[in-house]
Design brief:
The complex is a heterodimer of chains A (about 110) and B (about 160). Chain A is mainly alpha-helical. In chain A, about 70% of the residues lie in helices and about 0% in strands. The N and C termini of chain A lie far apart (about 50 Å). Chain B has helices at about 1-20, 25-45, 50-75, 90-105, 110-115, 125-135, 135-155. Classes of the chains: A mainly alpha (about 110), B mainly alpha (about 160).
Chain lengths: ~110, ~160
């Protein structure tokens, strides 16, 4: 029997892989792809929660979790569009996509 | 049958995600990521969220990954700049701590919550009704956000000749 724990466990494993990608990759595009992986894992958790949500007073389950996933996907699309332009500008001006080369603002 | 599909699609998702994160060539990473999104769409179908599964394939595996591939091709890294995972002990510690915390939290989740899946109506009509009634304001806000992203992209990518 596959319960909510299994879905959340799978989501957590994928999220951790994305977290490892953000922390261990130096290519800025791979870092963004890892962020997308983390958002995707959160989407999976949201839909799984929705599936196991208790029904409302009218006996129907509101698809709130699925609506949240819509918003996550829309925000992810907006974020990717802007972030990829920033990566392009980075490459055009500094000729690098390595995040370690762009640490001027770091204290 | 459902359990078998869950383990199959779940293992595929984890495997493809691992390959995405660890591939040295960014193009391979993008291709593995498309497969990972396909596995996720299969998992959404298992959760009866059919509309979300279609949107996942259309927007994520379609539009967003094409955007990624496009930029990877434009940047066109030299082969010697390809670099895999840089194993950082602090990063491994952070990831392991996160996973341990989540595992511990999941153990507290009672079986009463976990073992009663309801017949969720993931049909487009039901989702759309909620989206356009209770979440109408949020929906309009997202449209403004997308407009802001479009404007930001255009302004950023315009070559500044005046300087």
């Amino acid at each position: 029997m596959i319960g909510l724990q299994h879905w959340l466990g799978l989501s957590a494993v994928v999220f951790t892989l994305g977290l490892c990608g953000v922390m261990m990759r130096r290519n800025v595009i791979l870092v963004m792809m890892s962020i997308e992986i983390m958002l995707n894992a959160a989407n999976l958790a949201l839909v799984a929660f929705n599936k196991h949500m208790l029904p409302g007073p009218d006996g129907a389950v509101a698809p709130d979790g699925e609506v949240f996933v819509f918003f996550t996907i829309a925000v992810a699309a907006a974020e990717v569009a802007v972030a990829l332009v920033i990566a392009m500008l980075l490459f055009r001006r500094l000729d690098t996509v390595n995040v370690d080369d762009v640490a001027n603002l770091r204290w | 049958m459902g359990a078998l599909l869950f383990w199959g699609a779940g293992a595929a998702m984890v495997l493809f995600t691992l390959l995405t994160v660890s591939s040295r060539n960014p193009v391979y990473s993008a291709i593995w990521m498309i497969l990972s999104f396909a596995a996720t769409a299969g998992l959404f179908v298992l959760l009866d969220a059919h509309l979300i599964a279609v949107v996942e394939v259309l927007v994520y595996a379609g539009a967003i990954m094409v955007l990624f591939l496009f930029v990877i091709m434009l940047i066109n890294l030299r082969a010697e700049e390809h670099e895999g995972l840089r194993l950082n002990p602090l990063a491994i510690l952070a990831a392991a701590t996160f996973l341990a915390l989540v595992t511990r939290a999941l153990q507290d989740l009672g079986p009463a919550v976990g073992s009663a899946p309801n017949a969720l109506q993931g049909s487009p009509a039901v989702v759309a009704e909620t989206l356009f009634s209770r979440y109408a304001v949020a929906f309009e806000t997202v449209s403004v956000l997308l407009l802001a992203a479009i404007l930001g992209t255009v302004v950023l990518s315009r070559r500044s000749h005046e300087r």
